[in-house]
Amino acid sequence: MSRRGARALPKVGFVSLGCPKALVDSERILTELRAEGYLISPSYEGADLVVVNTCGFIDAAVAESLGAIGEALAENGKVIVTGCLGAKESGSFVRRAHPKVLAVTGPHATAEVMSAVHQSLPRPHDPHTDLVPAQGIKLTPRHYAYLKIAEGCNHRCSFCIIPALRGDLESRAVGEVLREAENLVAAGVKELLVISQDTSAYGVDQKYRTGFWNGRPVKTRLKELATALSGLGAWVRLHYVYPYPSVDDLVPLMAEGKLLPYLDVPFQHASPRLLKLMKRPADSDDTLARILAWRRACPELAIRSTFIVGFPGETEREFEELLEFLEAAQLDRVGAFAYSPVEGAAANALPGALPEEVKEERLARFMAAQETISARRLQARIGKEYIILLDELDEHGAVGRSFAEAPEIDGLVQVHGRVDGRPGDLLKVKITGATAHDLQGIPL
Ligand code: SF4
User: Fold this and answer.
1) Distant-in-sequence, close-in-space partners of 37: CB < 8 Å, separation ≥ 6
2) Helix and strand tally (H, E) in the chain?
3) For ligand 1, is residue 160 a contact (CB within 6 Å)?
4) What mean pLDDT is predicted for residues 323-336?
5) pLDDT band at 5; cut points 50, 70, 90
6) Tens digits of per-residue pLDDT, 359-414?
7) Which atom of ligand 1 is nearest the CA belonging to 161?
8) Interval between CA 163 and ligand 1 midpoint (Å)
9) Which of 149, 244, 294, 301 is the most buried (most CB within 10 A)?
10) Is residue 82 helix, strand or coil?
11) How far apart are CA 320 and CA 305, in angstroms?
């Protein structure tokens, strides 16, 4: 780099207070700053801005931290506060004492601090995006993208080995998730598909702590994350949501048009005994009552689910219970599997493994029952008007999806007639016909 370029590099002053955990946070932020090409300044005057990592453990530490912030403001003027004191009263405590600070974050908030730094001091070099685009490398088409909000799972469903492979739930920092979503939308993504192993559990592992995004406090919890995502201007679709009571809070956001009125809820079965054997989350709740309540709150809600038939010990009566549930629940889209043992899964040790032909016969009955329901529900949509997101276009028409169809797993809306536009554009259509899985429509 030329000498002129080197002189232009921005400098960040850093004050690190507090315990070893705070020190590790400081190291992470400093590492990130250096990786992005910022210089670190040992003094206030030489710096373009100052980061103060605070402590809030005892009164003396609070006073020392407030003093350091005040000094940095007086000497430099541009100050970002992070650390334990920053989390007090969701940042208001620090802002009350020092209203001029640029941003306040809590501890373990490297992503939020970096985002605050970027706002005041553009990064000289981004080791990530200089090599790859800001939205990362995506395998999906340009107009939709999966947004993974957590890894691992706290449940121990007896047929599943994901927790053994990926560990317990680890939610991503809310600021980091939102920054990724912003980058995706800026890169042209029109539909964000929120995923994890157990999306409704987002933030449980972090005790729903307050994170920061663009200087604003946001709790690490699905409702708050979904609300923030809904402001980005893209469709937001939730996958792998379990029927916990907390999901009831999301449905009003769907009714208000902030989130797509779509829930992907893997119910897996309806028999309480089998759900217990499967060790499913929310096994004892009255799922049917919950579905009815969701539909009351948001009548157009589309529900997708997956089921396992032929689980070890499933009796004919329990299977019929599942068919009765299907009839009562009237789900829009359903996938099903005949149970097959996965190496290492606890369910393999359960007594009562069913013969393959019984499992296959139940799967066929299950699919036939659901096909009738899905077809009836699709028929009921004929004559209605929807906004669809276009996936593909050619000279004969286009293919797209309404709020009720997720990409890859649900059906499609086939549009007949000339359509001008590109994948990712929205189009208003009138539904004119339906098959077992797909809808036909004309542009309006
Ligand atoms: S199936 Fe159960 S254990 Fe496996 S990832 Fe889903 S909730 Fe977790």
Assistant:
1) 9, 123, 124, 125
2) 14, 20
3) yes
4) 95
5) very low
6) 999 999 999 999 999 999 999 999 999 999 999 998 889 999 999 999 988 999 99
7) 4
8) 7
9) 149
10) strand
11) 18
Residue of minimum CA distance from atom 2 in ligand 1:
157
219 ligand 1 Cβ < 6 A: no
The pLDDT value given to residue 162: 83
Return the ligand 1 atom nearest residue 159 CA: 1
Q: What is the Cα–Cα distance from 438 to 443, expressed in whole angstroms?
A: 16
- To the question of pTM greater than 0.90 for the whole model, the response is no
Q: Is 278 touching ligand 1 by the criterion CB < 6 Å?
A: no
Tell me the residue type at 376: R
**What distance in angstroms lies between residue 148's CA and the mean position of ligand 1's atoms?**
15
The Å distance, Cα 170 to ligand 1 centre, comes to 14
Give which of 272, 262, 266 is closest to 403, Cα–Cα.
262
- The identity of residue 262, as a single letter, is Y
What pLDDT is attached to residue 4? 33
The better pLDDT of the pair 229, 32 is held by 229
User: Half-sphere exposure of 157 toward its Cβ, with a 13 Å CA cutoff?
Assistant: 23
pLDDT band for 6, please (50, 70, 90 cuts): very low
- Site to probe by mutation for ligand 1, drawn from 160, 241, 280, 308 as the one with most ligand atoms within 8 Å of Cβ, is 160
Do 198 and 154 touch, CB atoms closer than 8 A? yes
Q: Give the atom of ligand 1 at the shortest distance from the alpha carbon of 281.
A: 7
